[in-house]
Specification:
This protein is of the alpha+beta class and 392 residues long. The chain has helices spanning 203-216, 219-228, 245-252, 255-263, 279-286, 289-296, 312-319, 322-330, 345-352, 355-362, 380-387, and strands at 27-32, 35-48, 54-61, 72-74, 82-86, 96-99, 104-109, 121-124, 129-136, 145-150, 160-161, 164-165, 174-177, 182-184.
Length: 392
């Protein structure tokens, strides 16, 4: 992998003897060559560096084409060799980089929660104390997993699952768990926080608290409330906008909160507000491709229509979110579904001059280019020619 130069010290970042704690989910500033770029940490753990063995890296998603790969570790920029394994799954092309801690200069926005990182000591509920050795997605299940080396022989593996090495430890000392199974412990092995500080309230009160936490991105409170009562997830909503907790988390791009809500299995992913908008509409409109991808893995109606007839595809096209359009079309979203005026996504993209989206829509096997808008009888071709906004 190409060498990455360390950025000069940022005078705005506080310095102290204690090393900063960068966690999976944090939005951070990364020193990449001579640039300071923003990105999200999606992986922290051992990476296979070939003859050099396994080395610890952070896997970070930058902007489109700002990185080196699509989640694979490249041995060098000159030969672009890779072991083909994806350590995480960025939503944007060529956006993944692997860096060491010294190349992360500061935290822009910290993820809430227990803020666990590699080598932290934890208690794995139902097993024993251990040390975190891996944090990130795996090939055996979605979401973020924590690979822990237990102190005693109560594990299920040696850090390898289904032929993939995630970390190394003795046989039957390795285990993979979700964050809710972990309790941070101090050097003496005493739990740092065994108590869920959220106290049970009435279901409506808890639902209101849950919605507020989902709106502000407070994953710690979300998890605390759902630990007390998962069923409040299905009644958590804002009575003014009629948006559910899932809708607001999708709109604001709080990926981990969306994961937690879906994990309860208590909510209807196709629920609509009084305008007919669903969580998928919200995520598509805001351009959160990673959340759209997550929702599409559920039992979701990709062609659900709002009161004015628009679909999630129409929302994504209207806002020019090419990556979201691609994901929706890959799941066979109906490209011809129009709004109340019979305006199709193709017409909308022609009107706004989105050349790449027009080209992608035209590749859909069932595209109907001759549909006419009710208000003026215009077709997509007529709109494109009249407004000269796309390469006809």
């Amino acid at each position: 992998m190409a060498s990455i130069q360390q950025a000069p010290t940022n005078p705005l970042v506080a310095t102290n003897k204690k090393k900063p704690k960068f966690c999976v989910g944090d939005k951070v500033l990364v020193s990449y060559y001579e640039e300071a770029l923003e990105g999200y940490i999606h992986f922290h753990g051992p990476v296979d560096c070939g003859q050099s063995g396994f080395k610890e890296f952070y896997g970070i998603e930058l902007g489109p084409s700002e990185g080196e790969s699509d989640g694979q570790y490249l041995e060098s920029a000159s030969n672009s060799k890779s072991n083909d394994r994806k350590y995480f799954f960025p939503t944007k092309p060529k956006s993944a980089v692997f860096v060491t801690q010294k190349n992360i200069t500061s935290i822009i926005r910290a993820i809430n929660g227990q803020r666990l990182t590699l080598n932290d000591r934890v208690l794995v509920k139902g097993r024993s104390n251990g040390t975190i050795k891996f944090i990130g997605p795996t090939l055996f299940g979605p979401h973020i997993w924590y690979g822990v080396e237990l102190d005693v022989k109560l594990g299920r593996n040696n850090g390898m699952v289904r032929g993939v090495r995630y970390f190394e430890c003795k046989n039957q000392h390795g285990v993979f768990v979700r964050e809710e199974k972990l309790v941070p412990i101090d050097k003496q092995g005493n739990p740092k926080n065994m108590v869920n500080r959220y106290k049970r309230k009435t279901p409506p009160e808890m639902a209101a608290d849950l919605f507020a936490a989902c709106s502000s991105g407070d994953i710690k409170t979300v998890r605390a409330i759902l630990t007390v009562d998962k069923t409040v997830a299905k009644i958590a909503r804002d009575h003014n906008s009629d948006a559910t907790a899932l809708m607001t988390a999708c709109y604001h791009g709080y990926y981990q909160i969306v994961q937690e809500l879906l994990h309860t299995r208590k909510i209807d992913v196709n629920e609509q507000n009084y305008h007919g908008l669903s969580a998928l509409h919200m995520a598509a409109q805001a351009g959160h491709a990673n959340i759209v991808d997550l929702l599409l893995k559920q039992d979701i109606d990709v062609d659900l229509r709002a009161e004015d007839g628009i679909t999630a595809l129409y929302c994504a096209v209207e806002k020019g979110h090419e990556d979201v359009v691609e994901k929706l079309l890959a799941t066979f979203a109906d490209v011809n579904l129009a709004n109340r005026d019979n305006e199709t996504p193709l017409m909308q993209s022609c009107h706004r001059g989105y050349d790449k989206i027009v080209a992608r829509l035209m590749r859909a096997s069932n595209i109907n280019i001759n549909q006419k808008r009710k208000s003026d009888g215009a077709t997509a071709l007529f709109i494109a020619c009249r407004e000269s906004s796309v390469n006809v």
